[in-house]
Amino acid sequence: MRQHVRLILKAATRKFLVTTNERKQMSTKTNFKRIALVAVASLGLGLLSTVPSNAMTSGITLTVVDGTSVRNGKSDSTNAATITIAGFVGAGDSLVVTATQKSVPSSSSGLVPVFYNLDSNTPTLTTVVVETNGTSSANTVAAITAGTMTRSGARAISGNSTGDTHLATLGARFSSTADATVSRKFGLQLDTSSTTRAAGTYTYTIVVRIYEAGATNLASPTTQTISKDVSIVIDALAAESLTVSPGLSTAFIGTATAATSDAVISALATASTTAAAYVRVNTYNSTSAAVAESITATIAGAGTLSFGGISGSSLTVAGTGSSDISILPDGRAGTATITISTTTRNFAAKTMSFYAAAPSSLVASVSAPLAAVGSNSDVVRVVAKDSTGTNWAGTLYIYASDATAATVAGAVRATAASSAISCTFSAADGIHVCPVAGNAAGTAKMKVTTYSTAALATAAASGAEVTSNEVTVTVGANAVATVKLEFDKASYAPGERARIYVTPLDSAGKSLAAATLANLFATGGISTASALTYSGSTTTADSLTAVSITTKANTSATTGARAGSMEYTVYMPVSGGTVTISATGGSSLPIAGRVAVSASATVTDSGAAALAAVNALATTVASLRTLITTLTNLVLKIQKKVKA
Predict the structure, then answer these.
(1) Residue 305 above 90 pLDDT?
(2) For FRET with 106, which of 164, 223, 393, 581 sits at 20 to 30 Å CA-CA?
């Protein structure tokens, strides 16, 4: 080096000091500056003349694309997250790519993804070696080893590590024996066989570390580090959705938990911690799976609400998706109105009644005009009210007014509670229904009371006795003699609903008590030539062909039932005309009653009637026209005579 500088200085002296045409001397300071500049330039040229044998790794890029999957569904290369490494790799240099868990749903914290070589855009790979370590068979995976680069210990995907902290359980290593431009894509997916996958976002940190040639351990210093996060998003199954579908949510009131329809409920008003009713609130997602949602419940009138040990007239609770809110009696009689709403829906108000300990009035009526000898389930009905006007739903008892009445129906006032005949409360109808035993043909006076025995009534343990008005029950024992067919109306519009009544009669032509007559009609039952259609009947038969008939004990305006008769519901033909039905009495009747019977009704065809009216009008118009013509001619004749 000294000899080289000497030559440079010699040349500089020869060029700038000896061969100059000017005679003046340059300053010593300027002379040294010029010498130094020439020396630096020469050194630079000398360095440029030395070219390294291997190029350095450069321009490395890391590109990630998030992946998707479904709960317990497909998870493969078509929906995996991708990691692409591209750039120039120098001969002998190494790139180490690792994937480390950053965040996953808590229920999947032990899940290890799969890291694998997906594809390559590198033109030739003869000089490039790619090694991956990406199995998910265990929570801890063996370390990557490649060439002289080693790593001791292992690192769990959850983040706990041993040994070298630079390497995660999943990754790959690039190494090349010669300079090469590479573009390598890797896949990162959740293991399809895993049963611990939960819906949510799985995020992993991808790190690319670049090592120069000669590195012997992954703990060696790196020349560059690049990192990015990549995620795999698992959508929840529809059944796992936490979004409530308001239209599928329901609320029902019942006497037990898990009610599936609304019930009519009456309960004793005496305060108690035992629920008298429950409102089941179901909040569902689109697949009718239960989803938790806030519930607000209020009660107005009698009663109080309770849920989870908390009681009050207004509650806001965390519903579970299928929650039962209890309704407790609080000592007040009257109607309770319960309003239920959730975050997404308001339900129709629910109601129930709380009645006082004793009724204030009982009103009895006869529901079966004629009872049969033997048992009769529904003969007397009672409307019971308490002092607030609320239907009273306690137990009532029916008895014959005296011993004479008891020979016809029922029994005298019971002397023991076990022999008392009790009535049944119908919450739907708001009435008590009382049975009566028919003992013999005739009439009997009967009453209803709040006490089963006279002794209890005298003691008045729960308050003064309340009795109903006296009613007369008729028991019939006559045999069936004939059968009658009839329509409920004389005429119908086309297609109108009609009811056909079948009524067994005694020899005096009077209706009989409810009974089943196995062969009231001969084979074929009721027949008709008209195009009737049927909506079913109150027997097991769906047409008029039944021969066995069961008559009703009670009349109902709702169903069309008539005491002592059997009814069929039919629809009349759509065209006008007369509809006739007929039948022949069967073996349940005496021989004299086994005759043909029939009934008729008219279907008024509105179209035909309208046409007849139009024709009549046309006839009238024609007559008027003739009359006008005659009058006109007469006027003309008169005018001629006047002119003459």
Answers:
(1) yes
(2) 164
Q: Residues near 158 by Cβ (< 8 Å), separated by ≥ 6?
A: 101, 109, 110, 139
pLDDT at 72: 57
582-640 per-position pLDDT tens digit? 999 999 999 999 999 999 999 997 666 666 677 888 888 888 888 898 888 888 888 87
The DSSP annotation for 260-295 comes to: SS----EEE-S--SS-SEEEEEE-B-TTS-B---EE
Length of the chain in residues, anyone? 644
* Residue 469, pLDDT score: 97
H helix intervals, 333-440: 403-406
Cβ atoms 342, 350 nearer than 8 A: no
Q: Can you tell me whether residue 403 is helix, strand or coil? A: helix
Who contacts 5 (Cβ-Cβ below 8 Å, separation ≥6)? 39
First to last CA, the chain: 167
Chain-centroid distance of CA 130 in Å reads: 53
Give me the half-sphere count of Cα atoms (radius 13 Å) on the Cβ side of residue 312. Answer: 10
Give me the chain's average pLDDT, please: 81
User: Stretch 118-122: mean pLDDT, rounded?
Assistant: 66
Is residue 186 classed as helix, strand or coil in its secondary structure? strand
- C-alpha–C-alpha distance, residues 96 and 60, integer Å: 12
DSSP assignment letter at 591:
G
What is the pLDDT confidence band of residue 415, given thresholds at 50, 70 and 90? confident
